[in-house]
Amino acid sequence: MLTDLVELPGGSFRMGSTNFYPEEAPIHTARVAAFAIERHPVTIAQFAEFVADTGYVTVAEQELDPAQYPGANPADLVPGGLVFRPTAGPVDLRDWRQWWEWKPGASWRYPFGPDSGISFEDRPDHPVVQVAYPDAAAYARWAGRRLPSEAEWEYAARGGSTTTYAWGDEPMPGGRLMANTWQGRFPYQNDGALGWTGTSPVGLFPPNNYGLVDMIGNVWEWTTTRFTGHHQLNQPVESCCAPTLSPDPTVNQALKGGSHLCAPEYCHRYRPAARSPQSQDSATTHIGFRCVADLA
């Protein structure tokens, strides 16, 4: 069953920020046409229905082409994905390799690998992860929908607000946790967000003013906008869902929303304006997506 859509009016808004990371600048007026967006990220159960209906094989489940990865260790050129592993203690936060591990066999079915004891059947209401950009696009095409542009995504996430966070200017108003983000010292101590130390069931945290849940935290979400070092004001909007879309490891898409791994000292990106680059072929334990639809 597809996620219900929330219809949003078209309009203009102030996009970006100059208070955190340089890639979020410049602040500018962006305009979007009316569109509808899924209320929550695509879940594991929904993605499983798509795979059962189509026989689709995700990027993480496919053999890798050595020509696309010159210089790579042949032992690493096997189906799999990136898996987050907490460290034993404090580490240099400039080196992400300290907490990310390439795991052969990791996929949407077994996000942490087939020997982890965690399978897709255990978490049907969690956002699907270990999905690369073409996988998200293929699902959207099957659903008769598409992926959002970065401007559409940020417009929806703000919920009409102009504040730092979608819910205001304080990260935890009144001490209330508003999104699934890292609680503790990254990357070795996580006390859990409402008890969850990884992804959480969709809708566990409060909706924004448009009634959308998990726009912030839980999982990063793919957009059709190609990432650049700062906002390109005249950047053309790209379509996501061509039938022959294949991943290009040299091209980065803009991710939005932050994830359960975002922490103030490392990744203060649990804000609507935040953005992050990710290569089209990447499949990890903290990236998912949601779809949008055009309105007549």
From TrEMBL:
Gene3D superfamilies for this protein: paralog of FGE (formylglycine-generating enzyme)
Query: What range(s) does the Sulfatase-modifying factor enzyme-like domain occupy?
Result: 2-292
A Gene Ontology molecular function term for this protein is: formylglycine-generating oxidase activity
Which residue stretches, if any, does this entry annotate as coiled coil?
A: none
Protein name, entry field = Sulfatase-modifying factor 1
User: Which Pfam families did the record assign?
Assistant: FGE-sulfatase
Organism name: Mycolicibacterium agri (Mycobacterium agri)
